[in-house]
Each structure stands twice: as C-alpha cells, then as structure tokens.
Write a structure and sequence with these properties.
This protein is mainly β. The chain has one helix spanning 2-18, and strands at residues 37-42, 45-46, 54-62, 69-72, 75-76, 79-83, 86-92, 100-108, 122-123, 127-131.
Length: 132
C-alpha cells in the first residue's frame, strides 16, 4: 500500500521540479502569462513609399498569450494573436513620419502570481524595423 502512495507522489514532485522558475504555466507561481520572447519581425525593412496607407507587421517568437500586444515605437497596437509563436498588427502611415528606425517589442501584462515573488508577463527584447 505504501509503495502505491509513493509512486503516485513522484509524478507530482517531478512536475514541480519541471515547472520551477516561473517562466510559464507554473504549479508554484500560478502564472499563465510568461514573459514573451521575439525572434524576428516581418518585414524587418520596408521602403517608405510602401508604408502608406498601412502594412501588416508579423512578429514571430514564443510565449505569446491572448493578452500579448505588439508595441510599435512605444504605442500598443491592436494585435491578433495567431498562435503562441505568431502575432500580427497593422502599422499605419501616421505612425511613420519619415525613413528611420522604429522599435518593435511584445508586451504581456502580468497575470495572477499571488505573493510568491514570481514574475509574470513583461516586455520582450526589442527588434528594429528599418524604413528606407
């Protein structure tokens, strides 16, 4: 009888060890909103003449959730969460006054972490859209 109880506890201990670090859905932290990670944007370069009236920006990465938003040069955009690895948003010509470099990141608002000292949500690193 004791052996079956111990064998039922082992998967729980393994699950707690596997999910430690509060980077995703976490048994200890209770967070369902990990910090987003971006790996690329498309386009990464666009001619100024092709900006008007708008264009679709695709952001690829990981750990995107339903609350994640694309932030373009400090402005949160209406964002479609296509999957946990792909977001799309529309950038309008009004947001790009001239050729130059424009910062793109993903923001995920914090979720429920309780008072366990765990991080939840946050900003990804920043990539640059170049307008030539």
């Amino acid at each position: 009888m004791k052996i079956s109880v111990v064998s039922r506890l082992i998967p729980c201990v393994v699950a707690i060890v596997m999910f430690s670090g509060c980077g995703g859905l976490d048994v200890i932290c209770g967070s369902a909103r990990p910090k987003p990670v971006i790996s690329s944007i498309s386009p990464s370069t666009i001619p100024f003449a092709q900006v008007a009236p708008s264009f679709q920006l695709t952001v690829n990465g990981t750990k995107f959730v339903g609350a994640s938003v694309v932030v373009f040069n400090g402005v949160a955009l209406a964002t479609t969460v296509n999957s946990t690895i792909k977001l799309t948003a529309t950038v309008t010509a009004a947001m790009i006054a001239a050729p130059g470099s424009y910062n793109v990141l993903v923001h995920t608002p914090g979720g429920n972490t309780g008072d366990l000292g765990c991080d939840s949500g946050g900003n990804s690193s920043t990539l640059v859209l170049t307008v030539t």
